[in-house]
Design brief:
25% helix, globular, alpha+beta, 144 residues
Length: 144
């Protein structure tokens, strides 16, 4: 279960929009699944969404609140039908996924592996177009 984390941009929203509006936009794009978990951070929002009537169909979505971008999070673990609420708990507690979610820049600029029983493992830094940064990405990633 879990493994290399894959991040796919789903939809951009107006970054000034209230969270409820940003969530409504995601729900529209994902055909109105049930919101099972909502975890809010100053820079991000993590949602665990499930198809109604199928508790094993869950998917993870992260809103980068600064850019207004929704991302779908998937893993190279062959869980093609989706994830359960127990999987969500494992990801949050045993993999310490919140360490990455609360800093979306780390998800957008680095590739990670999530293994139960250990924290996020940095696989590699992704090539990016140069942007002015306030902090060294290497120093931020090392603290994850």
């Amino acid at each position: 279960m879990f493994g290399k984390l894959n991040l796919s941009e789903i939809v951009k929203t107006d970054k000034r929009e209230h969270l409820e509006g940003a969530v409504a936009r995601l729900l529209e794009v994902t055909e109105y699944p049930d919101v099972v978990r909502w975890v809010q951070f100053p820079n991000a929002l993590l949602l665990f969404l499930v198809v109604p009537g199928d508790p094993e169909s869950g998917a993870f979505y992260i809103l980068d609140r600064k850019s207004g971008t929704w991302y779908w999070v998937d893993f190279d673990d062959q869980a093609y039908g989706g994830y359960s609420e127990a999987d969500f708990e494992c990801l949050m507690k045993d993999c310490r996924f919140a360490r990455l979610v609360e800093r979306p820049l780390l998800l957008e600029t680095c590739q990670w592996r999530m293994v139960p029983g250990s924290g996020p493992e940095l696989v590699r830094t992704l090539p990016q177009t140069p942007k002015p940064a306030k902090k060294s990405l290497t120093a931020v990633a090392a603290r994850a």
